[in-house]
């Protein structure tokens, strides 16, 4: 559920914390640290320094930060400024995608100061919220008079709604919040009598981006992109690692301040960062939030689920878990495709990319025909309002109803094109306006999520391809390593230039291919306390602990997650191993190895990892290549669990054929190898100062002169063929 309907009540939710009071007064917002089940309340009050002095009416309660921008479209809410007054742990959890409860507030008013007369050491309220009623709040002088034991009875009183409540406010001095001063704005001073409405969330507190960014000087490549945009060209920007794609787009939007830009980003964390970076002529959205802005009046916004788990689907349709799993896979694939009907999906490609579904069909667990019919039933139930809808559903409906045709901007900026999907391409293509698509095909690493590099489709639509090659992240030695990798295995002719200076090393990361390898590294570092995982350990340990529980150590205290229940179909571990080899599931093969070798210590490793995860900072970080994308460290070490690329290429016909297939656009059957190369490139380019790849199998061969000569000869032959 993403927006809550709270039943009519005169309850007041009391929250402790001066910082929250600041945020409420400045922004009309309160974002809870976690999604605790708050009782329905019409008002919120803030308790700080032993006094309750201010309260507000709750306008909306949401469970997704990104949706604030959907309810108030076109806003640039300064969330980064808001986050500056919150603690670091909160900011980190928000960046990791942890869900929050968001209260949008209106008409912040004073009440007569209510003084804490509690005898408790921690005071009237410490960390957990408390509740009272609006009549008690307005009539009390001491916290002991706010006793909430009889709230239910009191809340039925017929007090008028907030705008008409008369407050017997004493004469209070204005509160000043010097911490809220921004570098470009005057000191922020608010009085308790100030009134804030949701419309005021649309104002930025700082000066326009133009004044803050006027000292940005574009590189020659950036200058050329801006010039070609001014000529009215659609542009595909090939932005190699660390080459300043965000700066380029910012310069573009600053150069044309009177044009209205729609900037579509990968996820809501990127959206929040971009909203701080870009000016008021740029509307920043995820593809889902864009769709929601148009669909919110056509669907029940109070009846949402983020996703359906397999047991929920099974109960909804009255089917077993195997069919429920198939429905989940087909439903998601349909929602991300460009086809309009489920039956139009291309299952020849579908089975190739969905080994779990292929396994269900091959073992006879399901009939694909029945699975399709069940998926259609599931989709219709959402259409008819019989079950809560998902984010993917309203995105698909936005496409099917042709609503993108009514979106109007002067230009559309699309980020991360290499890890997009067909529905995004279809929607962006339908929106009227000049297109700037930005991505790096060498960073396409999410094929297992059915992502697709849509850059080529924009090229075929007559977009002009332009590169960004100056990396401001690393120096020339790291650039050489990345260039050797791409030129040897992908015949890339454009070279990255490392223009960053050398620096001292203060942190490092071990970047693995699999989650299971992180578990193994943790077992080696269990007595060390200066490390942490980048990703939540519950996700990292999920597969190896499930396999351990089922096959090698059933005594561990662990419950198999619903999305891994298919493992229970295998009677013996060797059957699971055979399956993992058949489908070439590297993650599962690695997890099986951990279950065999670390079954006696895996639970201890998990508990240690959970403790370490709470650290604010560490000297050593543990992450997979997938999770590392978008991050950077001074020094990186690649682990030994990356596959032997030359063996894999040899099985597909050798290097010349591998290069030919990439060049001719026939890469479907080698897509898995290409993504493994991309993972190495992503991992290597996380380094600012030093990259150690010595543990990779055949790392010396990777950059040998013999291999380079074979690639160069192949490319010359391809060039000669094209001349003919």
What is the CA-CA span between the terminal residues?
Answer: 60 Å
Helix content: 40-55%
Largest sheet: 6 strands, mixed
Name of the CATH architecture of the domain at 11-202? Roll
CATH-defined topology of the domain at 11-202: Archaeosine Trna-guanine Transglycosylase, Chain: A, domain 4
How many DSSP H or I helices?
Answer: 32
The CATH C-level name of the domain at 11-202 is Mainly Beta
The gross shape turns out to be globular
Radius of gyration: 28 Å
Give the number of DSSP strands. Answer: 21
Q: What is the strand arrangement across the widest sheet? A: 2-5-4-3-1-6
- Structural class call reads alpha/beta
Low-confidence stretches: 71-78, 150-214
How confident overall, as mean pLDDT? 80
CATH superfamily of the domain at 11-202: Hypothetical protein
Description:
The chain is α/β, with parallel strands linked by helices and 724 residues long. Among the domains are: 11-202, Hypothetical protein (Archaeosine Trna-guanine Transglycosylase, Chain: A, domain 4), CATH 2.30.130.30; 220-297 and 404-468, Rossmann fold (3-Layer(aba) Sandwich); 310-388, no CATH class. It is built from 32 helices and 21 strands. The strands form five sheets. A six-stranded mixed sheet has the order 2-5-4-3-1-6. Strand 3 and strand 4 form a beta hairpin. Helix 29 (655-663) packs across helix 32 (705-723). The longest helix is centred in the last third of the chain and has 19 residues, at 705-723. The radius of gyration is 28 Å and the shape is globular. The relative contact order is 0.08. The model is unreliable at 71-78 and 150-214 (pLDDT under 50).
């Amino acid at each position: 559920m993403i927006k809550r309907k709270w039943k009519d009540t005169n309850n007041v939710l009391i929250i402790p914390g001066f910082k929250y009071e600041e945020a409420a007064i400045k922004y009309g917002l309160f974002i809870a640290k976690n999604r605790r089940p708050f009782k329905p309340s019409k008002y919120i009050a803030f308790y700080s320094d032993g006094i309750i002095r201010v309260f507000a009416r709750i306008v909306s309660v949401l469970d997704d930060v990104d949706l604030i921008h959907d309810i108030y479209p076109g806003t640039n809410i300064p969330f980064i400024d808001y986050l500056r007054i919150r603690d670091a742990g909160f900011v980190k959890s928000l960046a990791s995608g942890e869900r929050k409860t968001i209260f949008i507030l209106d008409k912040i008013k004073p009440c007569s100061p209510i003084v804490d007369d509690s005898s408790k050491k921690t005071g009237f309220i410490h960390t957990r919220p408390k509740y009272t009623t609006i009549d008690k709040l307005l009539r009390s002088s001491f916290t002991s008079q706010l006793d909430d034991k009889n709230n239910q009875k009191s809340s039925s009183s017929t007090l008028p709604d907030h705008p008409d409540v008369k407050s017997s406010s004493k004469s209070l001095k204005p509160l000043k919040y010097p911490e809220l001063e921004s570098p470009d704005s005057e000191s922020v001073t608010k009085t308790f009598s100030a009134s804030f409405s949701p419309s005021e969330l649309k104002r930025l507190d700082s000066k326009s981006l133009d004044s803050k960014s006027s000292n940005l000087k574009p590189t020659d490549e950036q200058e050329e992109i801006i010039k070609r945009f001014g000529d009215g060209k659609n542009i595909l920007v090939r932005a190699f690692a660390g080459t300043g794609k965000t700066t380029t787009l910012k310069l573009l939007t600053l150069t044309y301040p009177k044009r209205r830009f729609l900037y579509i980003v990968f996820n809501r964390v990127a959206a929040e960062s971009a909203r701080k970076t870009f000016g008021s002529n740029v509307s920043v959205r995820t593809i889902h939030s864009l769709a929601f802005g148009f669909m919110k009046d056509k669907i029940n916004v109070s009846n949402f689920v983020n996703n359906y788990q397999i047991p929920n689907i099974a109960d909804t349709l009255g089917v077993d878990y195997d069919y429920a799993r198939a429905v989940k896979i087909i439903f998601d694939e349909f929602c991300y495709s460009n086809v309009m009907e489920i039956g139009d999906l291309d299952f020849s490609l579908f089975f190739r990319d969905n080994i779990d579904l292929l396994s269900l069909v091959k073992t006879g667990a399901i009939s694909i025909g029945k699975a399709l019919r069940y998926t259609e039933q599931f989709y219709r139930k959402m259409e008819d309002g019989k079950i809560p809808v998902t984010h993917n559903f309203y995105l698909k409906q936005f496409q099917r109803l042709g609503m993108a045709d009514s979106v109007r901007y002067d230009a559309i900026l699309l980020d991360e094109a290499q890890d997009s999907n067909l529905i995004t391409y279809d929607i962006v293509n339908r929106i009227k306006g000049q297109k700037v698509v930005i991505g790096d095909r060498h960073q396409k690493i999410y094929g297992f999520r059915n992502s697709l590099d849509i850059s080529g489709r924009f090229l075929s639509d007559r977009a002009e391809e332009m590169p960004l090659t100056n990396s401001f992240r690393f120096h020339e030695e790291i650039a050489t390593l990345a260039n050797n990798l791409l030129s040897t295995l992908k015949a890339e002719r454009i070279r990255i230039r490392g223009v960053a200076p050398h620096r001292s090393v203060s942190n490092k990361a071990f970047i693995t291919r699999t989650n299971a390898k992180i578990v193994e590294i943790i077992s080696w570092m269990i007595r060390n306390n200066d490390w942490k995982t980048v990703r939540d350990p519950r996700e990292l340990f999920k597969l190896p602990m499930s396999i351990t529980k089922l096959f090698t150590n059933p005594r561990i205290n662990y419950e198999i997650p619903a999305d891994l229940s298919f493992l229970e179909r295998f009677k013996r571990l060797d059957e699971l191993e055979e399956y993992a080899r058949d489908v070439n599931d590297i993650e599962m093969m690695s997890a099986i190895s951990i279950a065999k070798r670390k079954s006696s210590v895996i639970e201890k490793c998990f508990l240690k990892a959970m403790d370490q995860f709470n650290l604010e900072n560490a000297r050593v970080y543990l992450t997979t290549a997938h999770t590392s994308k978008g991050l950077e460290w001074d020094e990186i070490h690649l682990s030994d669990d990356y596959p032997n690329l030359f063996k894999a290429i040899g099985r597909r016909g050798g290097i010349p054929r591998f290069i030919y297939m990439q060049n001719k656009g026939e890469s479907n059957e080698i897509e898995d190898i290409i993504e493994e190369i991309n993972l190495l490139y992503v991992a290597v380019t996380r380094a600012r100062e030093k990259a150690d790849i010595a543990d990779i199998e055949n790392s010396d061969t990777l950059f040998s002169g013999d291999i380079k000569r074979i690639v160069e000869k192949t490319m010359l032959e391809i060039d000669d063929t094209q001349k003919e």
